[in-house]
């Protein structure tokens, strides 16, 4: 670095020398016109660029970056919504309380449990569905549409619908189970089953969406690879292991991270189906933040939890980035 | 060998049919039950009748009596209109603001362009769930609680949409714009008269993605539109579930109503949506 600097300096000195040496010989000329025109053109381009970009930047700044900063600031205060003028700085008190808060701990582990199960299951179901219908099939479009159909319903609609299907006495699923001789299950009202019932529904709702992305990925794998493998007499298992899976790696990682983050944001399903119960077994992190902020109006503490939540999401994202980079490198 | 292949095919189709049943039955049950009365819903649940529409002889008061009752019981129409204003508002302003930003980042050289692109992509990581409280405080201070402004404005700028537009405009041939520039067209004119009309696919894709995201939105409308007259459909649906008497037929009718716009989108515009999906998938 240093060598470069000194040589640049030398160059600069030389130029100075030449300029000072030559200057007296030159007649005074008007400043180069072309350059000036270029400069004003660059200026105009910059102005136009900012004219096009400014609305989005201002909106993102005000409604995304500012609240982000505000959440960070609130997390060190005792901001209470009903007394917005009486806010004092309390240092790390909120964060200390997070460690002691049994509800937070429960919500955190509930969310981890949900994510740790949903992510691999949903990923495999989506991949399995995509592989099943990535063939010449009769009614292929019909099957694809059927698997995708839960995606057209919103999470709210799906949650309400499944609450009725999970109904312990009259629900559709228990009625179906009864015809096969299985006694009615409590599903959402038992602490052992409630979260698992929500997991089943969530996988059912989301898998079709990722199936579509996998299908697109499968179509991007060049066909000649399979043809070459056929000539070499590879079994279909070998083809899957050595061609299909490596070809889907990046897409699978992308889907993995999307599902992980979405899973960590779990809110709508427990809010509608169980209100976090029974015995807090379905209370999620975001749900706990929501309740603290809006029901108990403790913005300071809720913000501290939101900061922790953001950090967790960031860590998941960074791990994924690293994984993808390693892949490429 | 041939026999084995036949058996393979057979198991494949059987598993496909079973999977189809698993994925489709809640939707079918919802649609079909919305046409039945309470007695028929519970009676039919004992058998596969649960997935068949009511026999014409069984229909009293028309197929759509649950829909009529649902609309009479709650101002569903108002909720739908609110949802439409909310989503379409975000789409219209979002298309303008985000396409302009994407164009700026794809075409113009200006100081800090790379920095802003980095900032915009970085905001993608911020989970909206972590900022809704301070955002609510901000919107409250602005006096926008229970207004369409408060619902729409915070979500106009969308980093993901900006990114999609930028990628599209990067591939857009420059020659047309240069020709227009020689003809004396201004930059703004070039963008709105030449670029926009030739970029319909990306506009359609972004519009559909925005529609699907915001039609299904739950948290923000719940927080900002606390007043009954401002509720969106996703929030209003809960009434049928929580306020007795709970009528299953009406619940199913209301759920169907909330799903119809999405069904229409997927039936007619699926091509654009899948394009958007694959784009996001392959870009990463």
From TrEMBL, chain A:
The ABC transmembrane type-1 domain, residue ranges: 108-320
Alphabetized UniProt keyword annotations: Cell membrane, Membrane, Transmembrane, Transmembrane helix, Transport
Main location group: membrane
Keyword presence, 4Fe-4S: no
Top-level taxon in the UniProt lineage: Bacteria
Residue spans of biased composition, Basic and acidic residues class: 7-17
Family stated for the protein in its record: Belongs to the binding-protein-dependent transport system permease family.
Official protein name in the record: Sugar ABC transporter permease
Lineage: Bacteria, Bacillati, Bacillota, Bacilli, Bacillales
Gene behind this protein: ABC-MSP
UniProtKB/TrEMBL annotation, chain B:
Location in or out of the cell: Cell membrane
PROSITE patterns given in the database record: ABC_TM1 (PS50928)
Domain ABC transmembrane type-1: 80-269
Annotated Gene3D superfamilies: MetI-like (1.10.3720.10)
SUPFAM superfamilies reported for this sequence: MetI-like
Membrane-traversing stretches: 12-32, 84-106, 113-139, 151-169, 190-212, 248-269
Similarity comment: Belongs to the binding-protein-dependent transport system permease family.
Name of the protein in question: Sugar ABC transporter permease
Naturally occurring in which organism (per UniProt): Thalassobacillus devorans
Gene that encodes it: ABC-MSP
């Amino acid at each position: 670095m240093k060598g470069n600097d000194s040589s640049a300096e030398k160059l600069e000195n030389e130029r100075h020398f030449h300029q000072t040496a030559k200057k007296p010989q030159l007649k005074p000329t008007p400043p180069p016109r072309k350059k000036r025109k270029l400069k004003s053109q660059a200026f105009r381009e910059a102005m136009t660029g900012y004219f096009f970009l400014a609305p989005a930047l201002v909106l993102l700044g005000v409604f995304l970056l500012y609240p982000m900063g505000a959440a960070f600031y609130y997390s060190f205060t005792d901001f209470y919504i009903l007394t917005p003028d009486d806010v004092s700085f309390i240092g790390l008190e909120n964060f200390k309380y997070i460690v002691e808060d049994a509800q937070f701990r429960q919500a955190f582990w509930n969310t981890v449990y949900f994510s740790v199960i949903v992510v691999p299951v949903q990923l495999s179901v989506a991949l399995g569905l995509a592989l099943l219908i990535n063939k010449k099939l009769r009614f292929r479009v019909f099957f694809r549409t059927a698997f995708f159909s839960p995606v057209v319903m919103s999470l709210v609609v799906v949650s309400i619908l499944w609450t009725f299907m999970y109904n312990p006495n009259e629900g559709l699923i228990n009625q179906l189970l009864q015809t096969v001789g299985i006694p009615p299950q409590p599903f959402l009202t038992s602490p052992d089953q409630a979260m698992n019932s929500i997991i089943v529904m969530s996988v059912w709702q989301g898998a079709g969406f990722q199936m579509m992305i996998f299908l697109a990925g499968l179509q991007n794998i060049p066909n000649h690879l399979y043809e070459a493998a056929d000539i070499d007499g590879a079994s279909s298992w070998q083809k899957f292991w050595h061609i299909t899976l490596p070809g889907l790696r990046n897409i699978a990682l992308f889907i993995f991270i999307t599902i992980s983050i979405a899973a960590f944001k779990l809110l709508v399903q427990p809010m509608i189906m169980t209100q976090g119960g029974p015995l807090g077994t379905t209370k999620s992190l975001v749900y706990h933040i929501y309740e603290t902020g809006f029901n108990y109006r403790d913005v300071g503490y809720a913000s501290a939890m939101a900061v922790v939540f953001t950090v967790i999401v960031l860590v998941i994202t960074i791990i994924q980035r690293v994984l993808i980079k390693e892949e490429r490198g | 060998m041939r026999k084995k292949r036949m058996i393979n095919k057979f198991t494949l189709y059987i598993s496909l049919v079973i999977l189809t049943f698993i994925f489709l039955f809640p939707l079918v049950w919802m649609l079909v039950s919305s046409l039945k009365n309470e007695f028929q819903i519970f009676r039919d649940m004992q058998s596969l009748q649960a997935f068949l529409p009511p026999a014409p002889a069984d229909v009293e008061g028309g197929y759509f009596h649950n829909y009529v009752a649902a609309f009479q019981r709650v101002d569903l129409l108002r909720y739908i209109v609110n949802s439409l204003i909310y989503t379409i508002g975000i789409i219209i302003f979002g298309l303008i603001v985000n396409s302009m930003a994407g164009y700026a980042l794809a075409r113009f050289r200006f100081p800090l362009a790379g920095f802003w692109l980095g900032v915009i992509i970085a905001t993608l990581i911020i989970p909206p769930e972590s900022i809704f409280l301070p955002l609510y405080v901000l919107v409250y201070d602005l006096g926008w609680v229970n207004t369409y402004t408060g619902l729409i404005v915070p979500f106009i700028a969308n980093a993901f949409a900006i990114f999609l537009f930028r990628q599209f405009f990067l591939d857009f041939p420059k020659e047309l714009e240069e020709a227009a520039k020689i003809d004396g067209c201004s930059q703004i004119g070039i963008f709105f008269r030449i670029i926009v009309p030739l970029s319909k696919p990306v506009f359609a894709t972004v519009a559909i993605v925005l529609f699907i995201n915001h039609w299904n939105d739950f948290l923000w409308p719940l927080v900002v539109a606390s007043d009954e007259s401002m509720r969106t459909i996703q929030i209003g649906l809960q009434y049928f579930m929580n306020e007795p008497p709970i009528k299953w037929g009406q619940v199913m009718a209301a759920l169907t109503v909330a799903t119809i716009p999405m069904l229409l989108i997927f039936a007619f515009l699926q091509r654009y949506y899948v394009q958007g999906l694959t784009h996001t998938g392959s870009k990463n």
